[in-house]
Amino acid sequence: MAAAPDRLVLEAGDGRVEISPADGGRISSLTIRGRELLVTEGDGPIWWGAYPMAPYAGRVRNGEFRFRDRRWQLPANMPPHAIHGHVFDRPWTVDNPTTISIRLADPWPFAGSVVQRFDLAPTSLLVTMELHADEPMPASIGWHPWFRRPVELDLEADSMFVRDADGIPTGELVSPPPGPWDDCFTNLRSDPRLRWPGGPELTIGSSCAYWVVLTERPHAVCVEPQTAPPNGLNLDPTIVEPGQPLIATMEWRWTL
Fold first, then answer.
1. pTM greater than 0.90 (yes/no)
2. Is 21 helix (H, G, I), strand (E, B) or coil?
């Protein structure tokens, strides 16, 4: 297999996007008219860029889940829990200038692959992720962007999951209290919007029904669309079958 290029670069209008296949298939830079909107470095792969989460998004309690009467154990990469899947810290293969892919491998116990496609237009970036199963598997997918401060977030949601002492949703829904948050929301009334002083404004659309929002960090804000809440493998997971991929989209739209 050929080594993955260090980066793919897409440019259109005032937007420039860099994608790093070698760094877990993440969007490593988003600049609008020369202004960088993403955190571009961090102390480990969890803390920067906008990376894909697959074959599960968010935490898995104690790294444990059950599927078809069998218990499975995942490594605790954020002890005591497993978090954010197994593709954000491995190199991806470049299929063409706008498409990258990766095979699922140990420690994930089921065979399959993940594909990401990037479509940059003058005022938007559309990212599509597909999880293809070679055998039935429970799964969720999503993205984890780290947006640079200073930035203001507009979030209008009817429902937020109650978290337990481990920071994991219990399944109970409540009306969202004021932030700061490190929480999962659903039933959004409008797409989340981020506004930087002097512009731009970024609106985030997605086919995903769940959004983890982190505003507790002083240097960044995270707005994470995903197909299931954290610990989804233990709540009501999507069962992905061969020939029936799990597909999600995320679109960033900007105005100056």
1. yes
2. helix
